[in-house]
Amino acid sequence: MARTRPSAQRRRKMRKNTESFDKRSRSKNTKRLKLPPKLPPVQLRLRPSKISLRLPPKRPPMLQLLMLKTRLVKRRLLVASIVIFLIVTTIIAMKSLTAAFLPLIGGRAAMDTDYRSHNNVLRRTRERLARHEQEIQRTLRLGLRSMELEVKHLKWRVDEIQQENQTLRDEIEHERRRSRRMMLELYESSDSQETDHSD
User: Structure pTM?
Assistant: First the structure.
């Protein structure tokens, strides 16, 4: 995860702390690493009996080596304390950043759970709608099939009625012709009888 940059206020505080630490370390360093005081010049004391030359006492070489070692150790301790200070400040900054980002992480997790629950609801509604659509299509197919059967039955019934009508028409026509013929025969027979009577 990429580290985020601390805020301006936090950066100013860190800069101030490092500057104050540098000042303190410099002042300590200058105190610690002060050069030994300059040797006093050769003092000549005139006495009536003799002239004595007083020189500063020489340090033994082991003591000089020890002093150099202690200076090196002090310098290393100073560098180590600076490094430790920087590590501590970065740890504090990281802790504050994680404390600031924890609510965001929690909010992101809540958003993820909401998104998952919404997705589940959407998936369930889609499945329910798909089932409903399949049921509607099945009922429509069944309805269409039953309507087709009904239409076929009605067509067959219409054909049957038309055939019955045709037979009835034929019978009516036949009866008309027969009745007409009978009427004509009766009329002719009555005419012939009248002519016979007149004779």
Answer: 0.32
